[in-house]
Design brief:
It contains eleven helices and three strands; from the N terminus they run H-H-E-E-E-H-H-H-H-H-H-H-H-H.
């Protein structure tokens, strides 16, 4: 809710439906295909180049990031990276690290006693700071370098299992290296792009990139023409 309030949603049914179809296809080839409330994907109405994954399995991608993607495979690379954050429970891992063991013990006690007097208020007081921690992590401090590297590698593997070109992760990172300001936004919350590029080069190996699939390219162009015009 904070991210949507900050950026605003892009109200284009065709574009959002298409992003959801690509995202759900990828999620089925992750190691966490089923989540409590299902995966949800939404375009944010901003030219900033960014994407976010929440613990509730909602993935948000900006119009600026869509514009940077030139193919469906590159769009899939962005979504696969964010799905990898969810399958690894990275957001909760960062909250655990920032809040410590005592916080989680107290949270567990409050959850167990949720029906008792005052327990709901106690739980609300505990969860509020968690949301603040997460918003700061996603927009200011970022995940740890190890978690971001993990999401790059696991996202590339999701691409391969789904049938997308794993090189799309590499070409997207190369574009980001040129387009993203390292001092703000996504550039300030992720490891240096050249480090990520080297890691993915090792992951994809020596096989060359696949030819662009004409059917995928056509549906990408048709679904996202308006969204990418920013």
């Amino acid at each position: 809710a904070q991210l949507i309030d900050q950026y605003g949603v892009y109200e284009n049914q065709r574009a959002n439906r298409y992003v959801n179809l690509v995202g759900h296809s990828l999620a089925q080839f992750s190691t966490k295909p089923e989540v409590f409330n299902g995966y949800h994907f939404q375009i944010l109405d901003t030219a900033e180049i960014n994407a976010f994954a929440t613990p509730g399995s909602t993935i948000l991608i900006t119009r600026g990031m869509l514009k940077l993607c030139a193919t469906e495979d590159e769009l899939a690379a962005v979504l696969a990276h964010e799905i990898a954050h969810i399958q690894g429970d990275h957001a909760m891992e960062m909250i655990k690290q920032s809040r410590g063991a005592d916080f989680w013990k107290t949270l567990g006690i409050a959850a167990i006693n949720i029906g008792t007097d005052g327990a709901t208020r106690q739980l609300a007081k505990l969860v509020g700071p968690m949301i603040g921690d997460l918003h700061k992590t996603l927009t200011v401090s970022g995940y740890s370098r190890d978690l971001e590297r993990n999401a790059d590698v696991e996202g590339t593997r999701i691409l391969r299992r789904t049938g997308y070109d794993p090189h799309a992760m590499l070409t997207l990172l190369e574009k980001m290296d040129k387009a993203v300001d390292s001092s703000k936004g996504l550039g300030s919350t992720h490891p240096h792009t050249h480090e990520r590029i080297k890691l993915i080069k090792d992951e994809v190996g020596t096989a060359g990139p696949q030819p662009v699939n004409a059917v995928r390219q056509n549906r990408f162009n048709q679904a996202l023409a308006a969204a990418r015009d920013i």
